[in-house]
Structures are given as C-alpha cells and as structure tokens.
Design a protein that fits this description.
Blueprint (H helix, E strand, L loop, with lengths): L3 H4 L7 H13 L2 H6 L6 H20 L3 H24 L4 H27 L2 H12 L9 H20 L2 H5 L14
Length: 183
C-alpha cells in the first residue's frame, strides 16, 4: 500500500458542488444579517441557504429533464452537508434522520412559497419573505428590510433565469449583491 493517496490534492469540486458552495457563500454575506435583519442564527442561516437553493431549483425546474439531474445532485449535496453539520453539532444518530427530513420538507415548502410569490404581486413575495426569512426575528426588521429582501429575491431569480443551463451545469453561477434598505 502506498501513502501517496494521503498526500494527493483533493479533486476539484463537481459542478453541483461548485454551485452549492457558491450558494452557501452568497447566503453567508453579512449584509443579509447585519443590514437586512435576517436572524444570524442556525435557523436564519438555514433559511438563507434554503432561499438560494429554492431559487436555483426553480430555475432548473424550468429546464425540464435537462435540469432535473443537476437539481437532484444539488439536493443530495445540500442534505449531505446538513447531515454532516448536525452530527458536528452533536445531534445523535437517531435524531439526524428526522431533522434532515424536516429540513427537506422546509426547503420544498419555501420553494413553493417563493415560486408563488415570484409569480404574484410584490405583497405576495413580501409575505413569503416575512414568513420564511423573518419568522424567528425578534423584533421584526420592519417593512423596509422585508421589501428590500423581496426585491433581492426577484433580482436573484431574474439573474438565474438569464444564465444558460450550460453555465450552471459547469458549476458557474452569478447572483446579485444584496442591497441595504433605504434609511
């Protein structure tokens, strides 16, 4: 047995892994938490990752069968990461499966709410944002932050819609920078 395998550089991430890492980086931007009032908590951070994942899954859904495999790979990577994170936080083996299942249901619920909100009036999207991103915020960040975040969601969805599937399938994604609400 050789020890060379222990000293190899890790392989480049797959396109789905690259997309997931980009979504997580975007979701962790301090402006969402410090400037827009998303709770900087375990729930708030999950909700931001779920928002970005939902937007990308909705974009891939528009590609039919061509986007389905990439969407499934993204889903698998996200929930393997969630499983690993829960275990690192000390959640016991018996509780991890239920928590991951609950998180998957939450992701699908949020995706449905954002899809409905994006298809409707601004008030519908703002209600989805308020419920899903700010549901645990105390005190509420206020209408200006909610409206700014809803505009960000529309901008991110439009940015994703403009990106060709070939770029996404290669692991490349562009998302807008978050803006701060007007003072």
């Amino acid at each position: 047995m050789t020890f060379s395998r222990f000293f190899r550089q890790s392989a480049a991430p797959s396109p789905a892994e690259a997309l997931y890492l980009a979504l997580v980086r975007q979701a962790r931007q301090p402006a969402f938490y410090a400037g827009l009032g998303v709770p900087d908590s375990l729930d708030g951070r999950f909700d931001m990752v779920a928002l970005h994942m939902a937007l990308l899954l909705l974009r891939l859904k528009a590609e039919g069968a061509a986007g389905e495999a990439l969407a499934q790979a993204l889903f698998d990577i996200m929930f393997a990461d969630m499983d690993r994170s829960l275990r690192e936080m000390g959640v016991g083996d018996l509780g991890v499966g239920k928590r991951v299942k609950d998180m998957a249901a939450a992701l699908y619920g949020r995706a449905a709410a954002y899809e409905t909100g994006l298809q409707g009036a601004d008030a519908m999207l703002e209600a989805a944002v308020a419920r899903n991103l700010y549901g645990t915020a105390a005190p509420s960040p206020g209408a200006a932050s909610i409206a700014t975040m809803a505009r960000y969601v529309r901008q991110a969805a439009a940015s994703l819609a403009a990106q060709p599937l070939t770029a996404l399938a290669a692991g490349r994604i562009e998302l807008p920078a978050p803006e701060l609400p007007a003072a």
